[in-house]
């Protein structure tokens, strides 16, 4: 008894776990669940997310042009050479030279540049007849350079930054386009799966009707009220509808795999059966062609991309035109030198005597003090004119920029024409598919009534099994057509949203939130 009891408990546990597993493998998903899952996990979206990040880096790189530059330098030099005159040095001539420099440079938005530099040195030698040794020198210099024709202006100097920002906007718009395509693909896959599941139910119901008729025919053949040939026709119809079910089941699996791939559920939860939690609705949507065209022209990502690209082409043309001008530059400098050192005192102030009687020490700080105190003021202002021959004899770059702009303008007009056609077709599809729903609904209701009437006639012997089977087939077809029309209506509304560029808005999806979530 204990063994039997243990076996019973084990089997109960197995059945309980199997029941839990059966519940776990089914995943009920709404359309919104699938859309959000695709936007988070779809590999195509994951790849496109990186493009706005890359263009943002490009903007930062372009803006580095106006970051200040700071440089420092230090050098040491020691020279030795033979002395060929006792007047110059006793044995050899030795010189030590140390220098250091620091410079700060800043590009300005008008195309010019400004810099501040400090240069200092120390010179020490054993040469005779020196009045100051070692000697210290410093020079504080301000330089300003400004193009007056070529490379002049805010747009010219900030060309790379403006284009980089436009490219960043283009990348974000492309990302929106990818999201819209993904949403439409999810909707199509979702409603295709719903259709295939509901179509399978219709096929199974049709099979049940044929099986019920077959059972009825067998019973009537047994009692002798029906010819045996009627069984064969019923069996043939059952076999045909079983084949239809096999085909419908394959369609369900194919559509489920399509949706699973789009939302990237295959890698995450392989083997999970997706059960759509929504049914397609067919509430009428009022759409006007004029309003739709206005909305589409404003919101379509492809048109927004071309308009931004046109801005870039205009900037390229303006820059190419500027490069044809002569290079006329204004240059200005202001510098303040300073000098100090140890003063050597000779007898009777005669260095040729060679007799040193004293030394007045001096340091590098005195030279720096004179330089920063602007003790010695110097300045320079000038202009430089340079006329490159390519701006006179060759205008290829300008011509290329002009042709690129004209090409983009034509491309915009072409895209607008295609957009008009796509929106017209989308509006027309929504309107016609809504009418198709009600037409097929009426056809399905009539098919039900015809089948019901034919079955009543069969009971009283006024018709044949063949006609009943035909009406059953007609009802199954009518139900399938009605279901397909409802699905087509929902897909046509999704296609209309996509053609108008409002898929994200209607689904309350903000691309920036997705970018922040992944960054």
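Q: What amino acid sequence fits the structure above?
A:
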């Amino acid at each position: 008894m204990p063994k039997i009891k243990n076996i019973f408990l084990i089997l109960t546990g197995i059945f309980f776990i199997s029941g839990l597993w059966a519940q776990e493998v089914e995943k009920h998903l709404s359309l919104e669940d699938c859309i959000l899952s695709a936007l988070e996990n779809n590999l195509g979206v994951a790849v496109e997310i990186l493009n706005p990040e890359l263009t943002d880096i490009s903007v930062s790189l372009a803006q580095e042009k106006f970051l200040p530059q700071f440089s420092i330098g230090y050098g040491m030099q020691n020279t030795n050479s033979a002395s060929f005159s006792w007047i110059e040095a006793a044995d050899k001539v030795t010189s030590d030279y140390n220098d250091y420099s620091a410079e700060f440079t800043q590009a300005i938005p008008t195309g010019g540049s400004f810099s501040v530099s400090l240069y200092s040195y120390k010179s020490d030698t054993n040469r005779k007849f020196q009045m100051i040794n070692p000697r210290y020198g410093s020079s504080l210099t301000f330089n300003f350079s400004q193009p007056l024709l070529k490379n002049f202006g805010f747009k010219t100097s900030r060309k790379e930054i403006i284009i980089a920002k436009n490219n960043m906007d283009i990348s974000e718009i492309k990302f929106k386009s990818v999201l819209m395509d993904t949403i439409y693909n999810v909707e199509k896959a979702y409603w295709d799966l719903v259709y295939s599941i509901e179509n399978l139910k219709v096929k199974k119901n049709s099979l049940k009707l044929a099986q019920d008729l077959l059972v009825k025919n067998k019973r009537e053949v047994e009692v002798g009220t029906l010819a045996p040939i009627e069984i064969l026709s019923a069996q043939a119809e059952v076999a045909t509808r079983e084949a239809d079910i096999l085909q419908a089941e394959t369609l369900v699996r194919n559509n489920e795999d399509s949706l699973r791939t789009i939302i990237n559920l295959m890698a995450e939860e392989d083997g999970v059966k997706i059960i759509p939690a929504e049914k397609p609705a067919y509430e009428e949507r009022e759409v006007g062609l004029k309003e739709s065209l206005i909305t589409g022209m404003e919101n379509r990502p492809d048109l927004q991309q071309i308009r931004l690209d046109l801005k870039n082409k205009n900037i390229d043309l303006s820059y190419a035109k500027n490069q044809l001008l002569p290079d006329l530059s204004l240059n200005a400098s202001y510098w303040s030198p300073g000098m100090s050192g140890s003063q050597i005192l000779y007898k009777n102030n005669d260095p040729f005597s060679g007799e040193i009687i004293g030394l007045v020490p001096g340091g590098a700080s005195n030279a720096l003090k004179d330089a920063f105190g602007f003790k010695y003021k110097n300045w320079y202002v000038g202009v430089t004119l340079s006329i490159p021959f390519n701006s006179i004899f060759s205008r290829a770059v300008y011509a290329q920029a002009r042709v690129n702009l004209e090409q983009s303008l034509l491309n915009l007009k072409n895209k607008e024409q295609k957009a008009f056609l796509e929106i017209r077709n989308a509006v027309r599809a929504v309107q016609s598919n809504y009418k198709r729903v009600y037409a097929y609904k009426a056809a399905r209701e009539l098919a039900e009534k015809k089948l019901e009437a034919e079955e009543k006639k069969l009971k009283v012997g006024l018709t044949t099994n063949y006609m009943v089977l035909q009406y059953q087939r007609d009802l199954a077809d009518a139900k399938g057509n009605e279901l397909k029309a409802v699905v087509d209506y929902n897909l046509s509304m999704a296609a209309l949203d996509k053609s108008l560029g409002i898929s994200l808005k209607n689904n309350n999806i903000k691309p920036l939130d997705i970018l922040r979530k992944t960054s």
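Q: And what stands out in the fold?
A: The chain is about 60% helix and 20% strand.
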